[in-house]
Amino acid sequence: MGKGDLRSRRGKIARGTHGNSRPKKKKDKENKDKKEE
Fold first, then answer.
1. How far lies 29's CA from each of 18, 20, 24, 35, in Å?
2. Burial, 22: exposed, middle or buried (Cβ in 10 Å; 0-12, 13-18, 19+)?
3. Looking at 1-37, which runs of residues are DSSP E strands?
4. Quick one: pLDDT at residue 28?
5. Is the pTM of this model over 0.70?
6. The three-state (H, E, C) secondary structure of the chain, written as one string
7. Residue 7 in 3-state DSSP?
8. Contact 12, 18 (CB under 8 A)
């Protein structure tokens, strides 16, 4: 576990990748549309 571990969150941050332990943040375009109504 550490920066070299691709399955850990730290490792994904070090590599700049995403996955189950570090999901990508989705843009809130859908939520903004619902709030305006």
1. 21, 22, 15, 10
2. middle
3. none
4. 59
5. no
6. CCCCCCCCHHHHHHHCCCCCCCCCCCCCHHHHHHHHC
7. coil
8. yes
Q: What is the DSSP letter of 19?
A: S
Q: Cα dist. 24→12, 20, 35, 36 in Å? A: 11, 9, 22, 25
Sign of CA dihedral 7, 12, 17, 18: positive
- Structural contact between residues 16 and 23, judged by C-beta atoms closer than 8 angstroms: no
Going by the DSSP 8-state scheme, the letter that residue 37 receives in this structure is -
pLDDT tens digits, one per residue of 1-37: 888 888 889 988 899 898 888 888 876 555 555 555 5
The tokens of 28 are what? 């809130």
Give the amino acid at 25: K
